[in-house]
Structures are given as structure tokens and as C-alpha cells.
Amino acid sequence: MNSVGSECTDMKRDYDQCFNKWFSEKFLKGDRANEACTPLFKKYQSCVKKAMKEKEINIEDVERTILGTNSEPQKPPSAKPSSEESTSTSGSS
Q: What are the start and end residues of every segment in region (Disordered) (predicted)?
């Protein structure tokens, strides 16, 4: 998957490779320290923030919590069949 800014895609790939290596070789064996990938992440993060600013994407909108709050779009209530429909579908066979 490409990054939000095409100029960030190589940095994303480098960070992803570092993270995947750390996850499989360290994290899954109990080593939770991830300092090796921090510089790559910070460089990538900086690039993404710059690309978002250039594309006028507001970082606050991206970081806002929506799921599980009143801001989450709600599904409309399901329509209940009228009494006439329910009797005709459950009628005698």
C-alpha cells in the first residue's frame, strides 16, 4: 500500500520492513523494545504530516475518535412489516 504522499512511500516501505522484522524476531519472543525502528518511524511520520498539510488534510480530523461515540454514523432503524404484511406472509399454506 502506498503512503498518503508519494514521496513518503519509500520511507513507509523501510519502516514496514523494520517493523515486520522486529515483530517476528523480537516481539513474538518477548522483547518489547522497539528502538531500532523509531528513527524510521519519525522520519516517515514527518513526511506524512507534511504531505497531509500540502493536501489540506486536517490532522485533527484524522486523529478524532469516532467509533463508539455519538459522532459515529448510526444505521437507520430497520423497518418493521405492517400487520397486514405479517399476516399475509404467515398465512395458511
A: 62-93
